Amino acid sequence: MNEPPSLPSRDEMLAALLGKDSRYDGVFLAGVRTTGIFCRPACGARKPRPENVEFFADASAALHAGYRPCRRCRPLDRAGAPPAWVSGLLAQVERDPERRLRAADLRVLGVHPARAARWFKAHYGLTFQGWHRARRVGRALRCLREGGGVGRAADRGGYESESGLREAFVKLFGAPPTRVPGRPLLAARWLATPLGPMLAIACDAGVCLLEFVERRALAAQIATLRRRVPGVVVPGDHPHLRALEAQLADWFAGRRATLDVPVHAPGTDFQRAVWQELRRIPAGETRSYAQVARAIGRPSALRAVARANGDNRMALLIPCHRVIGSDGSLTGYGGGVWRKEWLLAHERRMAESGGRAATLRAC
After folding, report:
1. Domain at 10-140: CATH architecture
2. CA–CA separation, 261 vs 244, rounded Å?
3. Which of 18, 92, 104, 340 is most enclosed, with most CB atoms within 10 A?
């Protein structure tokens, strides 16, 4: 089984960072909240106060958390400086992080899209489009992590203007991170989990989105949410979010077998039928797409079931990770196959240790 990326203890990482210990290069990256930059452990820059540091297993996690790479230690460059064409692309993104560079734009810059995808994947662990998407989404999520205090975040960080932060937030969530008179509020919160940070959004009807922030389809899921649930997303508190955070902590720790916070998941009749069936799968068990299709009375609708599974905006709460291929393969998972494997193993361990395998409450 592929375990989630493991890191040394925080004390070990902090000691390595403060001691500029090069032996830890490649083991973790350090993000500095006051500058919005992430560095190698051995970076020669002035070291931050311990309370302003958080650690990441890889560049993808740091980018999605809203950090940009340090220009001094160049944490993305594992084998010296990148080629000039790569440096040019990185500079282009930093000049206008919110502009999407599509295949045609790359060709205008003299870069073949396939070459960019291969190089970035081999050296940074993400395709160029994945790297760029992480940069865009991370800037907006950084506003969320700051509780909406974008002015304070910009002042402390120094590298992002307040208008830039607000623009990033608006592009992802549809409105500034402040109250909009006359519109219902959807409260959003950044949740830390052992499998990486998650974004949770709730309204009075229930939790309406829970996703890993690294998920490629996160922006599309938020766009769909905005169409189906009226209101404006703002960083804030909500009883459903507080309950969700507490339940997730107990669930990941193995102290709780089920998650039963209210869920609000509007969709088509077919999507709702699939999602309801997913919630009937007991923890610790799996079903194939064909079994789900038969259970909802649509035995030939395998592709449609797979699409509805992928359209699920409720990781863990609507357990699409419990659906596998007919041959027993794990198949795809929006949060990554390694997370799917971890989640299924975790649920089996809880079931074997006597945890209740109860179904989740229907949508």
Report:
1. 3-Layer(aba) Sandwich (3.40)
2. 6
3. 340
